[in-house]
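Lecture 7 notes: from sequence to structure.

We start with a single chain of 231 residues. Read the sequence below before looking at the structure.
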Amino acid sequence: MNNINGMSGQRVLTVIVQITVCILLAIIIVGLIQQYVFAPVQIEGASMMPTIKVEGDKVYILKTGYKLEYYDMIIFFRPNGDDVDDSKNPASQHISITKFLNSLPIIGRQTVSSDNGGTDFTCVIKRIIGMPGDTITITNGQVFRKPAGSSETEALNDFVMEKDIGSGYGIKDTVEPIVVGENEYYVMGDNRNNSYDSEDYGPIKSSWIYGKVVLINSDGKMKVPSISSLV
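Now the structure, written as tokens:
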């Protein structure tokens, strides 16, 4: 009887160890996926309304294997000043133990996107409206784009302008023609009255990009990003 009880105890212990190992492996795998492939980002601020709400919405980004097109939403890290060392941009830095631990589900520290940042870099979400080689102009608040290699200029009427909610940002009435450089993108917030974007600081570098938004979690409902949300 004692031998039977002993064997049963060993089996229980073995099962517990196996389950624990499986759970730890699953946590590590999720952490690696979030570091290299697919990760959540918490959104703060009103710059992407009505597509993304002021507080509480979350987006999921693809970090690799994506192609950028007009109106794609991206997460990027903007330097807070011209004297910031761009080589330290979190979007281009390699994995670290701290980053890996923070990405683990049991810790749950997610990247947070906001127009305001108190460190060297601010994590930002915006929409691409200008690709490399495009010419962007703003006249009387209206955005115009001349695609690279084209002689035609088009007015961009998709962006709504929500009322000013006291963010301190506003629409630029006039921006002289600017040619988006190689490996650069011109980005804007859907809510132009409350967005700090390329109207203010010019095109962003591709090396700043952290990932492309592929899913939006709003009020517990998942949806795919679409320009139709602005219409």
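The mean pLDDT is 81. Keep this in mind for problem set 3.
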